[in-house]
Design the sequence.
C-alpha cells in the first residue's frame, strides 16, 4: 500500500487519475491539493466522484504533503511543478510529474519554448522520461518521473520503432495530430467554449506547440541523430482521444508488411501498445491505457497512424503505469 | 428564369442544393427524381423542406426530365450519372454533374480508381472541371460541368496558387484532410452510425480514396508536371466541414509572408476565397460558399490550411456558382 | 432602406442578426457597439463575417447611435438595455430589444425574478411583446418591441392556440424544454465549457428560470386567467435548437385530431409556424425562422411538441420579422 | 469462478458487458454467440476489445451453450430471448435476460405493446424484475432474472420511494426522458445515422414506447394501485446517458426537504443510487453503475430528476449487479 498525494486536483487529468487509483488495490489516496477556498470535498469540484471518495481539497505546503504521502502525482502546470518538486524530493517523496518541467533535458530549449527560465535547471537531463515502452529500466525505482505529454506519446510510439530499426529517415517527419477538447484543460477559454469548438475542426499553435521539442528530443535520442518534426495539432469536437497521422520517408526500399512487422516486433511484449492491421478510431482506445498503432505505405511515403485516450495513456494511465513500475506493482494494475 | 431538374434528390447535397435554389431569383425547380416508391413530396424525405417547396419525387426518364427542364443538376452516384447524362445533353439540357464521372480526363485512371469501365469515355477530357477559381472562362456557357469533389476543392484551392507561381515543389505534397460525416452521404453504414463515429476520429481509405487522382490531375495541370499527392482523409464527429492541412516543400527560399501574398494575389478578385492571416476553423465557413485559406512556414516546410463547408463550396454551393456562370447570372447569386 | 445599429454586437444573437441583415435588401447596418477596446473590425470577433461586412465595433453613446441609425437592435443584457433604450426612444429611434427588460408588464414581477429594480418601470405594460403570431397588429409601426425569449416562443406557440380555443386547462401546465448551448450565450462559464457539457444532458435553473414569468404572462393573457407553468429547461449537447414538450389536461373530451386541427386553424395564415403531423427534430428548423408544432393525446393528456432554432425564430429571426412589420417590409424578407 | 456465455454478442450492451466481466475476478467468459458468418473473433466486431479477449463468435444451439456455461446473459432481442431461454433453464443454466420478454407479468399486456404473442407465457409473473433496489431478496439465487429496461430503471428509481412512502399521487405522473443514441442499438436506421440525429433533439414513439407498461407495472406494484404514466422518450445527440425528469403531484402538503429525505432514507444502504442535492448531468454517471437522483418542489409539483448510463446501470452494469447477487459475490464486484 502506497500513500499518495495529488497536487492540483481540480483538472481533468487529476479526476481521471483519481478514478484509476480508486481501482488500484495498493493505492491509498491521502491528500489532494488545490488553492480552492474553503477546503471543499473533491466531489464538489468533480460531481462524478460523489460517494466514491471522501477527501477534501486542501492548500498544503510541500512539507505538509510530504508528511502524509510517499508518492506525489503533480498535476500542477509547468513552472509551478518545478517550484514544488525539489522540496518534495528533498523530503523523501517520489514524484510523478504531469507537467513539462522535467521532460526536456536542456534548460535553454525549455526557456525557448516555454518563454521562461527553468526553476530547477540542474536536474534537467537526469530525469527519466516516463514512457515505459522506451525507458522501462530507468523508471523502475525512479525517484522522479517526467510523465510524457499526450501528443508526444502518440507520435513517439508510432515512430520510435521505425527510427530505431532504421526503416525511416529522421529528416522531414510530419506529425499531424488531432485531439479532443479535454486536452486543452479545464481552464475557461473562448476556443473551448462549446458553441465555438463544437461542429468545427481547426489547427492551432502551428509551428509553436510546446510538445514539439519533446517529440524532437525523444525521437532524436532513439534515432541517434537530430530530429526536428513538423508538428501540427488540431482541435476536434470530441471529449477525448488523440489520433496522430505521421508521414516519413523510408530509409530504404521497404514493404508495408515490413513496416508493420517492425512495429509488431518492437511491441511484442508490451501490454499497452496494440499493433493492428485495420485503421483505428480513437474510440477504440477510449477509457483504456492502450495505444493502437498501424502503418501504411502510400506512394513511397510511410504513414503511421496511432491513437490513444489523451487522459489515460496520454496522461493519467501512463502515470499509473509509471507508479506501478516505480513501486514494483504489476505494470497493468488498475489499467 | 431557368427551369431546373435535380436527379437523385434524396441525399444531402440535393437538399442543400434545393435550399440554395429556393433563394435564387432565377431558378425554377420543376422536377426532382428518385426511385422512391409512391412519388412522395420532397418534404417527406427532407422534413426541413416542409412548406418551403411543393414538389414530388418522381422516377423520370431522361427524356421526361429534358421535356421539363433546361438545366439538370445530377446528384446521382458515379456510374449512374454517366449513364444518364449523354441522353440529357442530346436532348439539349445543360448539366452540372456532382459525381466523379466527368472529373477525370483519362478513362483508364477512372477505371483504376473506380473499379469499373467508364460509360461515356469519349467525353472525358472535354468536360470542364467546375472550379471557377481556376477554370472560370471554360465554365461560362458550358453545356456540361463536372462539379469538383469536396476534398479536391479544399486541397486545390490551397495549393494551386503556390504551384502556379512556382513557390512550392510539385513532388512530395501531403494532403491531410478532415471531414464531417455528411461527406459520407445518407446511405446507412456502420461507420457513420452515430454511436460508432461520434466521439471518435479516424483515418479511412488511406492511399486509396478516389479523390486522389482528381487532386493529382488538377494540381498537375496547374503545375505543368506530374503531381502525385499523398492524400489521407479523416472522419471527424461533426455534421459538415472540411479542413485540409497540406505540407509541401518550398521550391526556393521563401518567407511566410511571400507565401501568403501569393495566395492573396491569386484570389484578389475571387468572391468566395478568403485568404486570412489567422488559423481558420471549419465553423467559420459553415453554411457559406467560402473557402478560407492561410499558410505557415514551419521548419522549412510550407503548411497550407484551408477549410470550407463540404455541402456548400464542396458541393452544392459550387454547383450554384457554376450554374450562375453558365447562365450569365451574377456569380454570387443565392450564395 | 433603413439605417440600423446593433448594440452589444459580440454575442451569438448579434452575429446571427448580422447574417440575416446582410441578406435584407432594405437593411443598412451603420453601427455596431461593444466595449471591446480598440474598435476592432466585427470580423475580428466573429471570423465567419470576414469579407462579408466592413464595420468596426465602437463604444458609442446613445446619442451617437441615434445620430446614425433609425432603428436599433439592442442585444445588451437585461438592465443594460433599459438603461439605454429610453434615450434612444427620446432621440427618435425605433428599438427592438432582445433583452427581457420590456417583456414583463409588472415591475414587481421583474424585480422578483431578476433580482433588481427595473430602470424604466413606467414603460412596462405599454410595450408590445414581439410575437407576431399573437400581437402582429400592435407590432406594426411600433416604436419599441420586446423581442421574446427563446424558450417562451417555443412554449407559447405550442400552447396559446389551445388555451385560446379552450381546449386545454390553464392549470397545471408542464413545460419541459431542451436547448442547445448557444442559448447560454458567449460568456465563458464552466457549465458551457466543452468537456463539461458535451456528451451530457442536465436540467438547470429548475423552478427559477427567468423565462417562467414571461410564459405565464403571455399564456395568461391568451387564456384570460392566471397561468403558472412548471417550466424545466435542459441543456443539450448541440449548438442550437430548442425542443419543448408541454403537458396539459384537456378542458373537455377531445381527440388528437381536434387538437391538431385547432393548431392548424390558428396558424393557417402564418408564414413561420408549421403545424405538422410527424414528430419534429430541432434540426428540421436549424437556420430557419420556422417553428414546427405538433400534438399528441396520450392517456388523457395533451402533449404539444414544438421546436425552433433558438438563434433564429428564438431571437434574431424573430427580431427581423418584427423589423419587417415595424417598417412595412414584406414580413418574410431575409427570412 | 462462474462459466459465462453471452447470447447476441454483437451489440452495444454485449460489448459493455464483456468489458465489465473482464474486470470481474469470478467471471470466466467461455462463449459468445452470434449469427455472424465465419466465427470471427469478437475483436473483429468490437475493435476496442482487441487483445483484451480471445474468444470467437459462434452460432451455438442452447444445448451447446448449456454444455459450456453455467450462467447465460441473453442480449437477444425480445421474442428471440423467450424462444431460447426455456431450453437454457431446462438444461440447468441460470439466465439474466436483457430483453423485455420476462419483464411484464401479463402476457396480454406483452402482446398489446409488442404486437406478438409471447413464446413462454406460463413463466410470466414468476420471474423477478432485476432491480436490486426493489427486489434484492428475490434476485438472490434466482434462476432467471429479467434485467430492467434503461428508461424504466431511471424512472422507477426516482419515483418508487415517493410512491411507497405515499408522498406523491400515483395518478397523472409524467415521465419525460432523454436518452443518448446507443440506447437505440447498433442496427442501422436513418434516425440514428450521424448526420440525421447529430445536432438535433426529438421526441419519438410518443405514447407508444414499449417501456411504458414496464414502468406502469413496477410503479403500480410499489404503489399498490394502478399506475399509468405518460412517458415521452427523447433522442439526444450523445453516445450514452439517460436523464429522466418526472412530474408528479404531492399526495399531501410536503416540503422539498421531505421529498429529498424520503429518497435519502430509501437509498441509505444502496451502493449504486446517489441521492444528491445538486442537479445532475448524465456525464456524472458515465461509465459507472450509479443512478443519481434528486428532487425539487416547484409550484406545488414534485419534480424528480434522475440520471444514469444507459449501457451500465441501464443494462450491463445492472446485469452484473444481478449476477453478483445470484451467485453470492459481493454486489459491487467489477462495478
Sequence:
Amino acid at each position: 500500500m502506497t500513500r499518495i498525494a495529488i497536487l492540483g486536483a481540480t483538472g481533468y487529468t487529476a479526476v481521471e487519475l483519481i478514478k484509476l487509483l480508486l481501482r488500484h488495490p495498493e493505492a491509498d489516496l491521502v491528500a489532494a491539493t488545490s488553492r480552492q477556498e474553503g477546503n471543499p470535498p473533491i466531489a464538489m469540484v468533480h460531481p462524478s466522484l460523489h460517494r466514491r471518495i471522501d477527501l477534501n481539497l486542501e492548500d498544503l505546503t510541500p512539507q505538509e504533503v510530504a508528511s502524509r504521502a510517499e508518492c506525489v502525482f503533480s498535476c500542477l502546470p509547468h513552472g509551478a511543478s518545478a517550484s514544488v518538486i525539489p522540496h518534495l524530493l528533498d523530503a523523501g517523496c517520489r514524484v510523478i510529474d504531469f507537467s513539462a518541467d522535467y521532460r526536456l533535458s536542456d534548460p535553454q530549449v525549455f526557456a525557448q519554448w516555454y518563454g521562461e527560465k527553468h526553476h530547477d535547471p540542474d536536474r534537467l537531463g537526469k530525469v527519466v522520461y516516463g514512457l515505459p515502452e522506451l525507458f522501462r529500466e530507468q523508471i523502475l525505482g525512479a525517484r522522479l518521473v517526467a510523465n510524457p505529454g499526450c501528443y508526444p506519446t502518440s507520435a513517439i510510439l508510432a515512430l520510435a520503432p521505425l527510427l530505431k530499426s532504421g526503416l525511416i529517415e529522421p529528416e522531414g517527419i510530419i506529425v499531424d495530430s488531432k485531439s479532443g477538447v479535454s486536452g486543452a484543460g479545464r481552464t475557461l477559454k473562448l476556443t473551448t467554449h462549446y458553441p465555438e469548438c463544437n461542429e468545427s475542426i481547426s489547427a492551432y499553435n502551428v509551428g509553436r506547440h510546446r510538445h514539439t521539442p519533446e517529440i524532437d528530443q525523444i525521437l532524436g535520442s532513439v534515432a541517434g541523430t537530430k530530429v526536428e518534426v513538423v508538428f501540427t495539432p488540431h482541435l476536434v469536437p470530441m471529449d477525448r482521444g488523440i489520433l496522430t497521422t505521421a508521414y516519413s520517408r523510408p530509409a530504404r526500399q521497404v514493404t508495408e508488411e515490413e513496416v508493420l512487422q517492425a512495429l509488431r516486433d518492437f511491441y511484442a511484449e508490451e501490454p499497452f501498445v496494440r499493433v493492428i492491421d485495420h485503421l483505428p478510431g480513437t474510440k477504440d482506445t477510449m477509457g483504456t491505457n492502450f495505444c493502437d498503432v498501424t502503418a501504411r505505405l502510400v506512394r513511397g511515403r510511410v504513414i503511421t497512424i496511432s491513437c490513444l485516450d489523451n487522459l489515460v495513456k496520454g496522461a493519467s494511465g501512463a502515470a499509473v503505469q509509471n507508479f506501478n513500475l516505480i513501486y514494483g506493482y504489476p505494470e497493468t494494475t488498475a489499467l
